[in-house]
Specification:
The protein has 141 residues and is mainly beta. It has one helix and five strands, in the order βββββα.
Amino acid sequence: MNASGNTTNTDSTTDRKVRRSLEGTVTSDAMAKTITVEVERTFKHAKYGKFVRKAKRYHAHDESGQAGKGDRVEIMACRPISKTKRWRLVRILEKSRLVDEVQFDVEGAIAPTADDAAGAAPAAKTTAKANAAASAKGGVA
């Protein structure tokens, strides 16, 4: 209560309107502080009654760069940040379990990584330099 006996509301969140928020999947994180989020929606076709899926992509502001490709995120509408950015990242709902790189040996089989079992024998990797040295000696690398 203030001096005149009226109650004042100092909470600034009640004055602001509820902003639109969407959930989607990050399709690109190649830009600095920007992610591309694909939001898919399902609706019933007006004439035929079939359920249709439509996808739309939004650019969202990711200040800390914490969202990665394949992550499930929530974005919220905000003031225009740039020509195409009108959304900001609110939170990451689920982190992606995508594998970025797979190493191959010369024969084309997948080489074991550090995450593989410790007892597994590593695949033989050969380089052009090793092949040239072996062929000069008359042997096979």
